Amino acid sequence: MDFTDPTLRTPPVSLADVSGYLPGDPVGTEYFTQFSRSDRMAKNVMFRAPKGRHHVGRDETAVDMVERAVAPLVERHGAREISNIDVLLTHTQLPDNPVLGPGPEVARRLGMKPRWVFDIHNGGCAAFVHMMWTARMILQTTDARTALIACTQNCAGPVFTQSDIRGLAQAPVPGDGCGVGLLVKNNSAPILDIECRTYPEFAGDMEFSTNGDRKYWEPGAGQGCVTFTESKVAKVMTRGNRLVPEVAQAVCKRIGVKSSDIDTFVTNQPNRLFLRNWNEAMELPPERHPDTFDSCGNLFAAGIPVTLDAENRAGRLRNGSVVLMAAFAHAGDFAGAAAVRWGAAR
Q1: Model confidence pLDDT, tens digit, residues 162-192
Q2: How far is residue 190's CA from residue 14's CA, in Å, rounded to a whole number?
Q3: Chain center to CA of 220
Q4: Are the CB atoms for 282 and 248 separated by under 8 Å?
Q5: Assessment of whether the complete model's pTM goes beyond 0.90
């Protein structure tokens, strides 16, 4: 089926390739069980732990992770193609420098001189889709030819292993990793459609606390972490179950494909219950909704590109097939979905 609309005047943009990186050796759940407390929240399905995850080392920066994730793209497309990137977008869960994002340093490390550099903090677990949307808009409306988007999740090791945090119910769920995508202005693996929605009514429902009155930048006792209550967990579950299928179905409708006919459905991966509910809502068998949850945990924004990379390297993404990506962010203030006619190298 040809999804390219000949009436469109904007040039096609392709997700030409993806690549992922996981830091260090796998960390088993037994690391956390030695610190676990008797906690009612631990019984909540939201926090059922994966079998494993990866933790970034203390001295490994977000720039290091992006550089290592990009290395396979350099091998496949050549150093010149990467150094000539026109647009660079980054999303970092835990910025190494709270004053600025890693974009300019990533460009320096990779020998780039892009004309557009944006460090994008919103988008959360849906940041890969959000950055595809942003990069496509730049490529279609300027003379820019290529874009690199990079999602870095690096808070599992630094934040969730803190002495006061590692015993909490949510501590074993996140993992660290980085996923990147190469976008090119051509029709080799065209982006068929993207849907991005912001829900301001849910903004502010995701809270960060130091378990006291101290602001995170102020000195004093208390270790910072995202906080949950049972009522807020219930709201997030309800929203997430609804938002991801909604944006995914919107894309399916516009490209003229039934959700049950999607070849591969890749989402963020907060927990197993979301994954099950989403593939059921899309009427897809589990094998067409791959994830890396049990080996990587919740990778936040990096979940989609890391899972895509794993499927691509395993040869399970057939060129010409329709790949649908969808995710929601934070407590539900953002959701996005994108469809691609796959054709990436591996």
Answers
A1: 999 999 889 999 999 999 999 999 999 999 9
A2: 4
A3: 33
A4: yes
A5: yes
